[in-house]
Description:
The protein is of the alpha/beta class. It has helices at residues 4-27, 45-61, 70-74, 95-99, 160-174, 187-195, 209-221, 247-256, and strands at 33-35, 42-44, 66-69, 86-89, 110-115, 120-125, 130-132, 135-136, 149-151, 180-182, 201-205, 225-227, 240-244.
Amino acid sequence: MDDPWMECMDHCIAVTKEAGKVIREALLKDISIMQKSSPVDLVTETDQKVETLIISSIKKKYPNHSFIGEESVAAGAPSILTDNPTWIIDPIDGTTNFVHSWFHSEQREFGVVYSCVEEKMYTARKGKGAFCNGVPIKVSGQEDITKSLVLTEMGFKPDAQNFRAMMTNMESILTIPVHGIRAPGSAAVNMCLVACGAADAYYHIGIHCWDMAGGAAIIREAGGVIMDITGGPFDLMSRRLITASSKAIAEHIAQKIQPFPCGRDDTEN
Ligand code: IPD
Ligand code: CA
């Protein structure tokens, strides 16, 4: 194969499908929930099982590659991006949705996000476009923020001051006005919803590199914009982002949002 990253992406899609099967089966059983850093930071045996499955499968094929996986980092593994090819893995993005039966890497080269209950496989390879189940997708192209549907999430548990800033930010966006704000419960899926034009923007302070990596590649290839919450360049380890169907909407949101401290993924917080 001419493009080694395409081969990596195909392997990623295959193992992601396998992982999706494990997740769908687990949804039919009793889910045992464990707490990580706080009562809203949850993990299940399925998160851990799926991460192990994905990493061991990739390691077998690419023994020299590096990994940043959400559950491995939770168990003490480093979360540092180096120049070595690195797989950024979130085994289940939206664990809270998973435990309530509600109802992926910035890989600079490619991104894969699998919404396994809907069986929607979002993929993007740098320079080759973004797809959902093989069908090309693109952002809405909306430029007028007053006609936009905006996504955000409230999963990050900040201190009282940060909580107020988060609510004030939502008020500032709602009163622009926009058509509405929605919080579907998975950062990765939110980015894909913007990528396929179902929503026009998504902003979030307090997520992690594994929540954003796959979606970042997909958004870019779908013609969307991704930037830092301040309007500067997107930084995968910064724990925050704005993504939108157009630069005009992303910049408007950047003007309205007040950043609050949430640490970085590559430093001890
Ligand atoms: C979470 C989801 C959620 C967001 C949280 C994330 P996880 O990921 O993306 O939408 O609000 O900040 O941590 O923990 O379920 O992988
Ligand atoms: Ca997760």
